[in-house]
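sry for the spam today, last one i promise. struct tokens for design, 330 residues
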């Protein structure tokens, strides 16, 4: 029998360290030519509990690999607390793609916020000083790339970019992102107008600096872009057809036990009643998996110190997260 998982670059296996170098060249329509190539920073960053304890289901593994092969963004939809954001950290850890670039979305966020920011006041202040310093005033010193802008630098390996809760953004944001995703590049207009051919800017990583030529940033390895959504809005068809889509279901009893075992080693065997209680409450209103983890941890230690009512304590830290009411006629 053929091992259908043999094509997987990302396996989702606990503790796995997979080789992103096995990824074949992109299709011609998703080939990008940015350069010179940059080394991906901190290729094997220290493990984080969030990444190491994440347990993806088989469909998540399939769709992550589809996004990697096709060089397309991955749109991950699901209820709060189902592990949408943790997926990005788990992939970066297994494939050694460095720190995740994180871009949280709010109603006030624009595409420009994700690409770069420019501080004209700092430049004006420097120009007003009697001795402004060393040589030519490179406008790049007042520019800091955002998470998306950093992800699109010409790295030799793809960076992982987490765009969190994209459904909370402005209605035009998906279409604005689509243009950048298709081109794999963007312009820093302040640099283009400056007349300085090579400018050094700061990336979203903090102290790391890189040179931008002619004000244009073009990627080399298209980043693995993971966009999360709570399913609160519809996206334009043109945007959806250019994304790989993944719906993460709410975990069942068996998966919940695996999650507890991954996060709270040694407590899973005593959590059967809490899992059942959690599932019963979840059928009546919205809950998140981390609420169950909190209940397992707290009731274990409280019971050890003589707390009288384990379930009453669990209920108090499992409030419903929304106003959704159960359907009594279902």
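last one done:
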């Amino acid at each position: 029998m053929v091992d259908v998982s043999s094509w997987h670059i990302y396996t989702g296996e606990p503790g796995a360290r997979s080789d992103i170098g096995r990824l074949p060249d992109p299709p011609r329509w998703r080939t990008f030519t940015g350069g010179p190539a940059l080394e991906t920073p901190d290729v094997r960053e220290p493990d984080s509990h969030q990444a190491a304890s994440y347990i993806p289901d088989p469909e998540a593994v399939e769709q992550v690999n589809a996004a990697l092969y096709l060089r397309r963004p991955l749109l991950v939809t699901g209820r709060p607390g189902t592990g949408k954001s943790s997926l990005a950290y788990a992939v970066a850890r297994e494939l050694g793609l460095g720190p995740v670039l994180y871009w949280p979305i709010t109603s006030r966020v624009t595409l420009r916020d994700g690409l770069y920011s420019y501080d004209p006041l700092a430049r004006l202040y420097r120009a007003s000083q009697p001795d402004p310093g060393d040589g030519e005033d490179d406008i790049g010193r007042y520019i800091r790339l955002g998470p998306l802008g950093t992800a699109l630098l010409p790295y030799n390996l793809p960076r992982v970019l987490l765009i969190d809760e994209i459904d909370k953004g402005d209605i035009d944001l998906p279409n604005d992102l689509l243009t950048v995703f298709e081109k794999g590049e963007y312009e820093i207009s302040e640099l283009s107008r400056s007349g300085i051919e090579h400018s050094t800017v700061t990336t979203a990583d903090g102290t790391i600096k890189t040179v931008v030529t002619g004000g244009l940033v073009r990627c080399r390895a298209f980043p693995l872009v993971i966009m999360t959504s709570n399913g609160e809005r519809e996206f334009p068809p043109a945007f959806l057809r250019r994304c790989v889509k993944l719906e993460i279901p709410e975990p069942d009893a068996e998966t919940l036990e695996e999650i507890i075992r991954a996060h709270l080693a040694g407590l899973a065997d005593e959590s059967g009643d809490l899992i059942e209680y959690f599932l019963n409450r979840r059928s009546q209103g919205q809950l998140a998996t981390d609420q169950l983890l909190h209940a397992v941890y707290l009731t274990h230690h409280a019971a050890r110190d003589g707390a009288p009512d384990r379930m009453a304590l669990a209920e108090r830290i499992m409030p419903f997260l929304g106003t959704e009411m159960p359907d009594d006629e279902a």
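Residues 253-316 form one domain. ok im logging off now
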